Amino acid sequence: MERLDKVISGSGRLSRKECRSYVKQKRITVDGEIATSVDMKVDKDRSEIKIDGDLVLTRRRMVAILNKPSGYVTSTEDPRDKTVMALIPEEYRYLELFPVGRLDKETEGLLVMTNDGELAHRLIAPKNGVRKVYFARFEGNLVPEDVDAFREGLTLKDGQVCLPAEICSYNDGCLILIREGKYHQVRRMMASRGMKVTYLERVMEGDLSLANLERGGFRVLTAEEEKLLFSEEKPYV
Ligand code: URA
Q: pLDDT digit string (tens) for 148-203?
C-alpha cells in the first residue's frame, strides 16, 4: 500500500502539490469514494483512482475475466480474425493483458486475462490441477461407460492420455470437468467416445464462475475472486 499522492504523482497526472488541492476540491475518488486526504493508503495494483471521473493509470498488475463470444480467437494478435483483445475496454488496453490458456474460436465462456505471468503460469501448470468446467452440447449418446472412461483417464485418438476427468448429463447437454488444457481437449475427449461437440462453453475455472457477466463482457476481479481461481472447496460435478 502506498500514499495516494505518491501513486498519483507517479502516474504523471498531477504533482503532489496539485494532488493536495484536488483532494480539497473533492475531485479525486478511490474505489468510488471521495478521497479525504493525500496520505490515505491505496493499492496501486487494485485501487480504482479517478480524477474528475477519469481513471488514473496506476495499475501495474490486473486479473480480469471475459465472457468470450464465439468468433474471437484467443491470442493477442491475428492476421485474419478478431481476437479477444478487442473485448478489452479501451481504458484497460495500456495494461497489456493477455489471455491465460486458450479457448477455440467457436468456444464461448470464461477466459482469464492478466498481465501477471506468474499467476498465468500457476493457472496453467498441470501440476496445480486447476479445474475447468465446460458445458457441451453434442451429437451422440452419453452412456455410463463413458463416465467411467473419463474417470479412468481417456486415451485420445492420437494416443495421448488424459488425466482423470468427470462428465455428467446436464440440461440439453453435459458438464465436463478437466484439470489440464490439451489442444481441443474437450472436443477430442468427446470424439474419442463417439460424441461430436456442437456447442462448447467454459463455465468455471477453479471456483470462479461467470456469475452475471454477459456474453462479450469484461470484468476486473477483486482479490477475493482471484482466490477462487485456486480454491477447491465445493464439488460441482
Ligand atoms: N476444449 C476444447 O476442445 N476447446 C476449448 O476451447 C476448450 C477446451
A: 999 999 999 999 999 999 999 999 999 999 999 999 999 999 999 999 999 999 99
- Residue of 43, 104, 148, 172 with catalytic role: 104
Asked if residue 103 has its Cβ within 6 Å of ligand 1, the reply is: yes
Question: What residue owns the CA closest to ligand 1's atom 2?
Answer: 184
Compare 154 and 13 and report the one with higher pLDDT: 154
- Least reliable range by pLDDT among 4-18, 27-41, 103-117, 207-221: 4-18
- Best of 74, 100, 107 to mutate for ligand 1, by most ligand atoms within 8 A of CB? 107
Domains in the chain and their CATH numbers? 2-55 (3.10.290.10), 63-126+210-221 (3.30.70.580), 130-205 (3.30.70.1560)
Per-residue HEC secondary structure of the chain comes to CEEHHHHHHHCCCCCHHHHHHHHHCCCEEECCEECCCCCCEECCCCCCEEECCEECCCCCCCEEEEEECCCCECCCCCCCCCEHHHHCCHHHHHHCCEECCCCCCCCEEEEEEECCHHHHHHHHCHHHCCCEEEEEEEECCCCHHHHHHHHHCCECCCCCECCCCEEEEECCEEEEEECCCCCCHHHHHHHHCCCEEEEEEEEEECCEECCCCCCCCEEECCHHHHHHCCCCCCCCC
